[in-house]
Amino acid sequence: MLIGQIQIISELKRPKHSIAPGEFLVIGRGAESDVILNDSAVSKAHCKIFYEEGEFQLQDLQSRNFTYINDKQLAGKERLKDSDIIKLGRSTILFKLVSRKEQTASLMLDSINPSLKKIVLKPQEDKHLLEDDLFAHVVLSMPNPTVSRERIEECRRYQKTNPASSLKKILLEKKYIQTKELQTIQNAIENILKHEKSEQSLILEDSSQKENLAEQSLFLKLARAKGFLNIEQIHSACLLHRKHKEAKNSVTLLEILLNEQYLTSEQAQEIQNLQKGHIPYHIEGYELISLIGVGGMAYIYKARQISMDRMVAIKILLEGYRNNQYINDLFLSEARAVAKLNHENIIAGYDFGEKHGISYFVMEYVDGISLSQKLKKCQGRLQAKDSLEISIQVAKALDHAWEQGLVHRDIKPENILLTNKNIIKLCDLGLAQKTGENQTAPKEDFGTPAYMSPEQIRSEPNIDIRSDIYSLGVTLYRMVFGSLPFSGSTRDIMSKHLSEKLRFPGQSMTKEKGDLAKIIHKMMEKNARMRYQTPKELLEEMLKLQKQWDKSIASGTMEVMVEISPSRLEKGYLTFFKKFLKKLK
User: Fold this and answer.
1) pTM for this structure?
2) 202 pLDDT exceeds 60?
């Protein structure tokens, strides 16, 4: 006997629900519905699927926006056939008739360990990811899009009646895109998928980890750096941990990694020893003191250069990359790039080499904090004049790098250091690349999704300094307004960088913030040709604004708005009234 099965094809995970003969399903957005849709255009109890007289039937429950079957409005009730498409609100449902055997297999897939489920379902999931919303986002974000939004919608309407056809396939069949364009689109999609699987993104999306995010993130970075874990294992462990949390099971991420045999107890102990300060390396001429962090390619240690009796920072290439010629060349290129640069606002390079199979790079050590740490100390944002001054110094560093033909490719608060004398130092030039070099060669993850330019997300060849200007624009936005311009999951953020219009918070928009918003808007234009074309051009605009502000301060006409928390505001009023009452007495 055949049973009914519906699949919500408008949702990312495309969940399935089964209806056996004699059963029924109410679909709607209300809590009482059997299948709940997160869709405001759907009524609380929108429609019903039931079994009657040997057939599955669909009935509208007097919904406000009606129910459609194969694009025809449902009148009363109607018999459901295999592969019928049901439309309600903005949601689309595929109805299928399946055998008991097929249904049992489907239920088994839904109940197996998430680690195995991911491996089994990944090809199909990735197929949908590439062919639906993400594909459309990337197509529409191309610098000179050949496909309009109207044509995308036309293809989506066609797809409703042909759910087996992907959006990519339909666009190609209709000749709306050419085969030669697909590679650029594919690069962007792969870049987004790659970044959303980073250990940082996975931990951030697992809300149960937010209490000890830094500790968990460092543990996973060290485990990957040592070659003990790969990203697929981290992904599976995070999924399992989320399920345990939802079931209110008290299970740690480390316990899952051990239980799934992704890590041995010896490996876990080795990582914990590194976290506690154990240093397994010796480099002649240097005394390694403590681990500062783990980057994409290297450990970073605080050390003392014995001959000069000075503090330095040493990068040591990760074990997993030591036999990778491309990564070794990239590591060496960083050393050469930094050695060529001589600027007050760029970390200086001192020495590099390879001893006993360990590649290392010695740099200037900055006694200070990162801009990221500074923002945390200042309740998430800085005063407008401080934000401008920091951006000016970073722009000066970019201008010097650009004169040497270098692009940084990872401008963000974590890579901007502030010395105790308020001098900005741009660091982590591991991603820096000489313009004109082959940027299509295989490479590791580069850039940070929240700060990446559209062309960087699309993995375009020959990315230039305008990409760094975009990333600095995101950083300036973060300093001034206390948040990132685009929020959501890694995928959401990267998609928004490609296609969503930049908006600024309407509240507390002082004149100074408005001045900076104009500059940020130009820095973050989606089309690189519409941005400031060089750091020098950007610097001229920023220095001109700084000069105007200085004149306004001197003349006493500048509007200054001090932002304080509500609790501090209440205390301020209380102090004021106490002083006022004293004067009255």
Assistant:
1) 0.64
2) no
